[in-house]
C-alpha cells in the first residue's frame, strides 16, 4: 500500500469526524501533558535538593553525633563519656588528613538576642569553631569570624547571621563592636554573615564553643562546665577518602571512648541516596498516573477505531473485492490509529508546555519545574506508541474481514 495515500486517507477520515477524533485523543493529550509535568516537577525538586546539599557542604561533609549505647553495652551507659573536646583534640592530633573539622554546641531551647528595646528570637545559637563558616558554606559580610584565640579564652564574642543583623541593627549603623545580650549574657559583635538563600542558616548566631559550654551548659555559679559537645562536623578533601576517613575516625573514637559505642556518623551520602530514592518514587508515582491516562487514551482509540471499522464494513469489503490484501487493510487502520496518536501527542505537548508555565508561576523559585528535551521526547514517544499499539486490534479485525460478508453488511 502507498504510504502517502494511506496518510491522506487517514487525515480524510479524521477530518470527517472532527469532534469524535478530538474525544478519541483526549486521553493521549492528558497523558502526554501529565508526563511532561511530572518530569519537570521532579527535576525541579531534584535540583533544589542537590543545591541544598551543596549549600550544606556537599556529600563530602558528615557529622559525628552522640548516640545511645547499644543494648549489649547497656551496663556501660553510666560511664558513657559522649562526645567531648577530648575527641576533637584526639582527631586533630592524629595523622588523618581532613579538609575541615569543627565542634558544635547547641544552646538549648529558644534564645533571645537583644539590643536595647530591639529583640530577636532564634533557636539557632551555635557554639562552634573557626572551620564552621566554611563547613556551612557561608561567608563573612563584615568584620571577621571566630578565631582559635576566641575559643581558647572563651571570649564573649558573636558573629550574627543576616536575619539577626537586620532585626537588631535596622538602620545604617555598623554592628561591629556593638554589645548585644544573648539570654542575658553580654556579647560583642565581631562580624556578620553575608546574606544567604538558606533560611535554615540565615537565623544563626555563632559564639565560641567554649563560651557556649561555660555560659549555657553549666560553668557559672561555681559549677563545672559541661564539656560534652553536640556534634563534630567534618569535611574530607574528596569522596575517594570518604570511607577510609570514616573507618579511621571510628577507630580513634573507640580509643577515646574506651570501646563504648555511644557515637554515630550522620553522612550526607546516606541523605543523598534517601533523597534520590524519594525523587525516583515521585517519578514512578507520577508516571503511573500519566500511564493510566495514556492507557485510557489507548482504549479510547481502540473503541473508536472498532466503531469506525463497523461503519466502514462495506467500504472495506469493496476494497477487498477490488484486490486489496489483508495486509493493506491492516496497514491502513494501523496508520489511522498512529495518526490519531501523533496528533494527540502534539496537542499533549502544547498542553504540557502550558501546564508547566502555570506550575512555574505558582512554584517557589528554588524548586521551579525544569523541562528537559529527553523528557519531551519520551512523553511524545509514549503517547505515539500507545496509539500505535491501540490500533493493532482494530487493524487485525479489519484484515480478517471476508469480502463477501463485508459486501452483504447493511
Low-confidence parts, pLDDT < 50 over ≥5 residues? none
CA-based shape: elongated
User: Major sheet, described briefly?
Assistant: 12 strands, mixed
Number of strands: 12
What level of helicity do the residues show?
A: 40-55%
In angstroms, what is the radius of gyration?
Answer: 34 Å
Q: Structural class, please?
A: alpha+beta
Quaternary structure: single chain
Q: What's the helix-strand series? A: HHEHEEEEHEHEHEEEHEHEHHHHHH
Strand content: 15-25%
Topology, element by element:
Layout: H1 3-16, H2 18-55, E1 61-66, H3 85-93, E2 100-106, E3 111-115, E4 118-122, E5 125-128, H4 132-135, E6 140-143, H5 148-152, E7 157-160, H6 162-168, E8 179-182, E9 185-193, E10 205-208, H7 209-216, E11 231-235, H8 242-256, E12 263-267, H9 268-311, H10 313-321, H11 326-362, H12 373-390, H13 392-399, H14 403-408
Parallel strand pairs: 5-10, 7-9
Antiparallel strand pairs: 1-11, 1-12, 2-5, 2-11, 3-4, 3-8, 6-9, 7-10, 8-9
Question: How would you describe this structure to a colleague?
Answer:
With 410 residues, the protein is an alpha+beta fold. It folds into two domains: 3-54 and 273-408, no CATH class; 61-266, no CATH class. The protein has 14 helices and twelve strands. Strands 1, 2, 3, 4, 5, 6, 7, 8, 9, 10, 11 and 12 form a twelve-stranded mixed β-sheet that branches. Helix 2 packs across helix 11 (326-362). The longest helix is centred in the last third of the chain and has 44 residues, at 268-311. It is elongated, with a radius of gyration of 34 Å. The protein starts with a helix and ends with a helix. 34% of the residues are buried. The model has no long low-confidence stretch (mean pLDDT 80).
Amino acid at each position: 500500500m502507498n504510504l502517502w495515500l494511506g496518510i491522506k486517507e487517514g487525515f480524510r477520515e479524521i477530518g470527517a469526524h472532527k469532534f469524535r477524533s478530538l474525544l478519541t485523543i483526549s486521553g493521549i493529550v492528558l497523558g502526554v501533558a501529565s508526563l511532561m509535568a511530572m518530569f519537570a516537577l521532579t527535576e525541579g525538586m531534584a535540583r533544589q535538593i542537590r543545591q541544598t546539599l551543596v549549600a550544606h557542604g556537599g556529600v563530602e561533609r558528615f557529622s559525628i553525633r552522640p548516640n545511645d549505647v547499644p543494648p549489649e553495652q547497656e551496663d556501660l551507659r553510666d560511664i558513657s563519656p559522649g562526645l567531648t573536646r577530648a575527641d576533637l583534640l584526639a582527631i586533630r592530633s592524629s595523622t588523618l588528613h581532613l579538609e575541615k573539622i569543627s565542634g558544635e554546641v547547641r544552646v538549648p531551647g529558644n534564645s533571645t538576642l537583644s539590643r536595647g528595646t530591639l529583640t530577636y528570637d532564634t533557636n539557632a545559637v551555635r557554639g562552634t569553631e573557626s572551620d564552621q563558616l566554611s563547613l556551612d558554606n557561608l561567608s563573612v559580610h563584615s568584620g571577621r569570624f571566630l578565631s582559635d584565640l576566641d575559643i581558647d579564652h572563651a571570649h564573649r564574642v558573636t558573629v550574627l547571621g543576616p536575619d539577626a543583623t537586620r532585626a537588631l541593627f535596622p538602620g545604617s549603623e555598623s554592628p561591629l563592636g556593638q554589645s548585644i545580650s544573648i539570654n542575658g549574657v553580654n556579647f560583642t559583635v565581631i562580624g556578620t554573615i553575608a546574606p544567604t538563600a538558606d533560611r535554615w542558616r540565615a537565623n544563626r548566631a555563632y559564639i565560641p564553643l567554649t563560651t557556649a559550654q561555660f555560659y549555657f551548659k553549666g560553668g557559672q555559679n561555681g559549677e563545672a562546665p559541661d564539656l560534652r559537645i553536640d556534634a563534630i562536623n567534618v569535611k574530607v578533601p574528596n569522596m575517594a577518602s570518604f570511607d577510609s576517613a570514616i573507618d579511621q575516625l571510628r577507630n580513634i573514637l573507640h580509643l577515646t571512648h574506651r570501646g563504648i559505642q555511644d557515637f554515630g556518623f550522620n553522612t550526607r551520602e546516606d541523605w543523598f541516596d534517601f533523597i534520590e530514592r524519594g525523587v525516583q518514587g515521585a517519578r514512578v508515582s507520577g508516571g503511573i498516573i500519566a500511564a493510566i491516562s495514556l492507557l485510557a487514551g489507548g482504549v479510547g482509540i481502540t473503541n473508536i477505531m472498532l466503531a469506525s471499522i463497523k461503519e466502514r464494513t462495506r467500504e472495506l469489503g469493496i476494497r477487498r473485492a477490488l484486490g486489496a490484501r489483508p495486509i493493506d487493510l491492516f496497514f491502513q487502520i494501523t496508520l489511522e490509529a498512529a495518526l490519531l496518536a501523533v496528533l494527540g501527542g502534539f496537542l499533549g505537548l502544547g498542553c504540557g508546555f502550558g501546564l508547566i508555565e502555570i506550575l512555574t508561576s505558582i512554584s517557589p523559585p528554588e524548586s521551579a519545574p525544569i523541562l528537559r528535551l529527553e523528557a519531551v521526547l519520551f512523553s511524545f514517544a509514549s503517547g505515539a506508541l500507545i496509539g500505535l499499539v491501540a490500533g493493532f486490534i482494530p487493524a487485525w479485525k479489519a484484515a480478517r474481514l471476508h469480502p463477501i460478508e463485508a459486501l452483504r453488511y447493511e
